[in-house]
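RETRY 2/3 - previous attempt timed out on the joint model. Re-submitting the same 498-residue input unchanged.
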Amino acid sequence: MLETTEERAGMPAVSAEKGRTAGNAVETRRRRAGRPSAAVLDKAGITTAALELISRKGYDGLTMAALAKLLDVAPSALYNHVAAKRDVLLLVEDHLTSLVDVSAFGSAPWEDAVRTWAWSYRNVFAEHTPLIPVIAVLPVTDAPQTLAMYETVSKGFLDAGFPEERIVSAIVALESFIFGSAYDVTAPGDIFEPGSMADANPYFTAAVRSSAGQPGSTGEERGKPADTAFSLGLEALITGLGSLRNQAG
Amino acid sequence: MLETTEERAGMPAVSAEKGRTAGNAVETRRRRAGRPSAAVLDKAGITTAALELISRKGYDGLTMAALAKLLDVAPSALYNHVAAKRDVLLLVEDHLTSLVDVSAFGSAPWEDAVRTWAWSYRNVFAEHTPLIPVIAVLPVTDAPQTLAMYETVSKGFLDAGFPEERIVSAIVALESFIFGSAYDVTAPGDIFEPGSMADANPYFTAAVRSSAGQPGSTGEERGKPADTAFSLGLEALITGLGSLRNQAG
DNA sequence: ACCTGAACACCGTTCAAGT
DNA sequence: ACCTGAACACCGTTCAAGT
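RETRY 2/3 succeeded.
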């Protein structure tokens, strides 16, 4: 999996001085200053610790100080492995992208493969919306797993008869929709309730009232609003983009 | 338009003690402690000052301290008018939404109206992507201009024969695509250059190479990549969602 | 090369005191 | 009600010193 030499270790690295794993304090003997005989930190360990912190305390809890504490080092030690906090977010982003399901490309028909990929992609990042501003501006060179995902998706599009010169635009369009939709998942359910402003906005108010209880994409009685909107937009995109394919696929 | 009583003043409020407008220092006579005879701050002034700061220094420059300095007050004075920095972002967001062009609804055909609205919406927020996480979770009750936009768009959809119970989902789907696409505009042009990873990712690399110089939506020789992708996705959504309309429109 | 520890230049926010 | 001024509890990051 595009593993680099400095990222081979598991996480969290065992601290020789303490005989324990990070985040699970057992002893308190201090590590003295100076370079340790074996490095305590590596990128894989930092990534796993960041993920652990995010799942426990959310993105507000992901501070360099908290990360350092979980890894049992001084905050400044992190800067031997990352240039800035943004690099930590980047490591996390690339790891999460490897969780996106691209397996249907190559087995299922194009429409099904895009559907599986898009839902999986949205669901992964719905839990990690603070990363979206990072991804959107992220050069693919800095994110090997993200690049690997694009490679699989590109091959799937090409094999399905999609014109090569339109593949990147199509992926970008789908991704834009996916990222925007990931935010919707986190929105409160009553986000569109006009409340006291209902009288001044009758058309929108009526639309909101009548949209309640619409069936979800999976067929249940009332789907979550975010899922209904995602399904609606995704099917429109699949149909519209699919019309660009030629007969080769 | 939906002006509230405490927001009627222009901006920046004139400081009686200094005889100048905020952000344009002339005198330095100190305002003494205690409640001033006329309020120095109001929401409209805070909004305009925030916008000024953003245009001059970007969102990193928008701090409560910098905002207070531009308005010539102590930082703590802001908290008499907003509960937190988030409220400042909300004020800015609602103002920007009022700049989105919804004028084509009611005059142009539905497809053209959606197109005009979507491009305008994307262009406004492409310059203000840090607001996107705020909007996505924002109850409409707290943003009267945003609600007004939804009202106009909803009426446009209904008048065009769009089924009422699908309007909110359709707007959400379009908005999701618009917000995601706004990020693309800010991305560096070479974001997809595989660089040294090209060999390991041949399909994606070929797609990136062949996508360069594709025509933009406005017909010029080579459009900006973000515009090409936006056009592609938007037209797919317009076609797909448009098929839901009945003959009434 | 890769740690510690101290320090720097900020943040957003709170709150008593003043008029 | 609506300011000032001081203070609090943080931030991310830098850098000399140590091995």
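Chain B touches chain A through 75 residues (CB under 8 Å). Closing ticket.
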